[in-house]
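Protocol step 4 of 6: record predicted structures for both targets in the notebook before any analysis. Target 1:
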Amino acid sequence: MQVSVETTSGLERQVTVTVPAERIDQDVQKRVQQTARTARLDGFRPGKVPVKVVKKRYGKGIREEVLNQVIQETLFKATTDEKLQPANSPSIEFKNDKEGEDFEYVATFEVYPEIELADFSGVEIEKLSAEVKDEDLDQMIETLRKQQASWDEVERAAEDGDRVKIDFAGTIDGEAFDGGKGEGMDLVLGSNTMIPGFESGLVGASAGDEKELDVTFPESYHAEELKGKDAKFAVKVQSVSAQTLAELNEEFFSNFGMEEKTLDGFKAEVRKNMERELVNTLKMKLKDQVFRELVKLNSIDVPAALIDNEIDNLRRQAVQQFAGPDSDFDLNMLPKEMFQEQAVSRVSVGLLVQEFIKANDIKVDDERVQTSIKELAETYQEPQQVIDWYNSNQEMLNQIQSLVMEDQVLDQLLASAKVSEVEVSYEDAIKPAQPEAETEEDAAE
């Protein structure tokens, strides 16, 4: 067997393999003889079909099977001998498969990048810390009351916080535009659902009023054709409703699955959930920050095949989140560009974390795995059943082990970095992290 390797571009490799004709002919002959012993053909007794007849009837299919088997065996040996790590399934092109001649094929695939991790000790990390204060708890309970609130029509002018039912039609330079019209839409004033100036322009309006609002679409508006455009909206107010917050009573507590239907018990449970969410959010933000710095520090080529796979995963997650797990929505309807940056980041982090694990010979901590399972189980009514289920389900157990391994990597990276603790409010702590601002240097690139 002869092997040659060519780097075509970046991480792509072309491996040309030549297999002597003698081996192919021998393997075909063996397979023909085996088939002759079991073949059943009219006019011949079982096991007595002549080899010549078998070869004529089944020779082409047998040769194809042999060639496929030879490709599997020789390509595995070739990549092992050449120390190549394929990142995707290879595409195979036959160069010569004529009977009696040496068999030659070309396998094209991407390889994993060679990674030499940079020193992490100079990296500066801000570790956020926060606590749930009484005012945070009160604000959360107020939010929960609003979620269970009722709306009652009132015969007065609309105030901030009221809900109005409206019909509206928008124009730009006297022309209607897509998405600029609606009927019977409920809008809470002050919710910032609409573009600036729209909601504030309806404060003071009563049922039956017709108003004309002059507004400007923000430069950051999602529709390119509307960014920065001045618009007029003709609005008719059908009704005005005031909000009545839910009472803190047994019925209210029952809506949240509370066994102890008292205000003190409810507050204690809400605080516990807030503290759990706070811990998880701070941990996730810290992990994102550290892994983002790891990617910045280690510029690596990422196999396109892995990026495409991750884009498909993100597409599936998006469809499940917004359309439900049983949706038949075509994933390809979602543009790849929507997920490209996130996919590259995820794959980069995955490759770097795996390299860090290998370089530092990190083994998963089984005690931490069980602790994680117990913490997860505490959120369910029957914790022990959840614990037993995770430990008896290898796929789910593998997921927990992977998360724990990530945490162990995080701990080691933090131990070598320059970490400063920054105290923030609960509200700021649980806010989604904002994308990093583009620097002038980035923009120039």
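Target 2:
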Amino acid sequence: MEETISLQDLFKIIRKRLVHIISLTIIGALIAGVISFFLITPMYQASTQILVNKQAQEQQTIQSQDIQTNLQLINTYNVIIKSPAILSLVIEHLDLNLTPAQLSEKISVASQNDSQVVNVTVQDENPAIAVEIANTTAEVFKNEIPDLMSIKNGVHILSPAILSENPSPVKPNKMLNIAIGAVLGLMIGLGLAFLLEYLDTTIKTEEDVEEILDLPIIGLVSPIPDEQPISNPSRRGRGK
């Protein structure tokens, strides 16, 4: 016989184990909060924008082929910015105790909607260092790209990175982590509640007897009180 659980049974299980479920939810949120506030190192972010375009030569009109060429150059520039040829000079300028590979992990480069504007974003534990790395990377790229590409290019820094008075870390997202911890705790609590209910084979109600024996109940035995009522002897004496 297939065992089916109704929605009402599910709510009964949840209500029965509600304290455990709530406790695990709170514990999950607390663990995530402790990790986010005390164990994860905050990361700060700084960004600079670079405009890169190939200077017009003899032809004054802009052809669609030229636009496509510029966009292809942008993809090439995105790779060059994170190359050891650029990052080694950045490390030398700032006297960083990093390898080009380690510095590359801190830098992300992306163009805005296939435009000629390149965003250089740096994340570091120190907000001031993040700003210095972003600006120095842009300056080094601006100075080195003509020699690396062997062509005449116009590289302009649109907006350098600026250190704000009260920088806020971008990682970790503490509230999001706490919410995730609470959801995980809730899921574990629900799973544990249903597991304990499934492993509990004790008979507690008449419905449990009917389900196990597959027989209808024809009678019940009332509970017998532990102490019997004692009659008053003085009343028996008066009746004699």
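Step 5 preliminary note on target 2. Residues 56-62 have pLDDT under 50 and may be disordered. The beta strands are 44-54, 107-111, 117-124, 153-159.
Proceed to step 6 after PI sign-off.
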